[in-house]
Amino acid sequence: MEHQQIIFSNAIPEAIESILKELDFNKAVIITDVNTHQFAFPKIADSPAVKGVPCIIIKSGDTYKTMETATTVWKQLEVAGATRRTVVINLGGGVVTDLGGFAASVFKRGLRFINIPTTLLGAVDAAIGGKTGVNFNGLKNEIGVFNEACAVVVSTLFFDTLPPTELKSGYAEMLKHGLLSDRQYFADLLNHDILDGDREHLLGLLKRSVIIKRDIVAADPHEQGLRRALNLGHTAGHAFESLAMKRMEPVPHGYAVAWGLVVELILSHMIYKFPSDILHTVADFVRDNYGTFPITCDDYDTLLALMRHDKKSLGGEINCSLLADVGDIKLGTIVSSDDIKASLDIYRDLLQ
Amino acid sequence: MEHQQIIFSNAIPEAIESILKELDFNKAVIITDVNTHQFAFPKIADSPAVKGVPCIIIKSGDTYKTMETATTVWKQLEVAGATRRTVVINLGGGVVTDLGGFAASVFKRGLRFINIPTTLLGAVDAAIGGKTGVNFNGLKNEIGVFNEACAVVVSTLFFDTLPPTELKSGYAEMLKHGLLSDRQYFADLLNHDILDGDREHLLGLLKRSVIIKRDIVAADPHEQGLRRALNLGHTAGHAFESLAMKRMEPVPHGYAVAWGLVVELILSHMIYKFPSDILHTVADFVRDNYGTFPITCDDYDTLLALMRHDKKSLGGEINCSLLADVGDIKLGTIVSSDDIKASLDIYRDLLQ
Q: pTM of the prediction?
């Protein structure tokens, strides 16, 4: 795999120009969604790099991350005269970079694409790492490919158009990256004020986070080993997210990850003696910033069933990536139901 | 890219067993079409390697090489409980290996697949080389990916279920491979009786042809250079094929390629002094085995327009891969309208 170019800059049009200058291409096409087109796109629309580039605008939201939407994108790529030498520019959050990356990757057996994430969650998660796809038949990301953007432009330019919950949601993935790497970066993250901190400082923290993810992905692009470390917090997190859906009170993905991180650090402490002082610091930070997801012991069986059906679990056993310390990753640990129940008890003690 | 395993054998079940033994997998699923299931599948259905493996049966014919058919395949893969560790076995001609390869490549971001071509054209063309895809919005192979089968089993086992036109169609692609490689192999091809020759001898010739294609693809998997050599005969051939469609008298793909080879060898002679004795030998072989595609000078403008719209042509110029001699490839030659017209005059002299 060629090395992916990642540019950290709030001068987006200049970044686009410098990327396109290196590519042998005949045409650029932007894919974006209705919200992004209304709130983020105007910030770059007047620049020469973007003016006159055709825009394909999809509907906003995960509900529209479907094959039907991909079909409308392909038809519009044809109308725009896209050939194999055309470059697609995905401007938006995770839905746009996931769907736009997939649509580009299979159009005429593969157009190159550039990701310009407009959300914090998109920047630290979806836009990097080559996972593209659409939901299908009620299953998330069921159809897709592993294919990296040829370049990604990471910025904080659009963040003032975002609601606070989105910023916090993205920050939870950054906390995860901190836990996977080193104590100093992790401490820097805990010392930053998510909502009121200055944006230049945030761009620095974001850069660190993106590089941690990029390096993990580069070591294991198809998720056969190390990449599973990125699932830290997600086994319990997805279960919380699904339970919230069942209750008809959905929670933001990043919030569920934050609560999931607490549960999985508790398991890490129980099984691998992950330091309890760090566990308590994380629990405090999560409670202060994300509140708590209310559960009782009546929810335990539902949560266990959800964890057993997680994509990462095989043959009904619950499989987690855990930590023995910050940066000391224990991949693919099979966790017993009793340990999960004990960790949920402690989660309730710590957060509720 | 990992090197693809190609097994040349008429002992298909044993070949499947030996391939699966090397793979870490949890389940196999067969994709085939109605015709293949009726005529070819019974030849292997009773073997232990195949018995009990779920079969997804799609409709036969290029008309059904669509996203709608892929959608039914994905739903049946879900019903069959396919996971990322499942292996798909594509049993059929080009439609099955193209569509099955695509469906597998994007299901859960990529299942591995094995191709078992049941036609000669499939064996020498579609099953090897990693081009997968479906037709979309009236355009051939508009949506797809480059992704190689992890293994291909090449045999002549199913050929007695095929009509003579299919065998001849596939043989035209073998002639093309011969022209791209060396005089001895090419002479062997001309000396073989397509319909009555013995099948063991054909398997030997087929093996040679598959290896020529494999080596060209390995040098240029994404068709940015050498792989375009495989388009020899196809610029004129596709124009003949499309003209036949316009006349409502469709011709088999391989027949159009055979006639296209004659036109492009004439151009090769005109531009690069390709030896005229070989050109005449090819013209005789093509006339004897494929007859001729009747054209008059009234068809020239239509044929030129079709060639200008060929995928390989850029900016309205007609682009061909030609030869200076057998095995001496001249990629991406821009050919003038006058030269095309002159070559069509000579084609009519030689074949009509």
A: 0.93
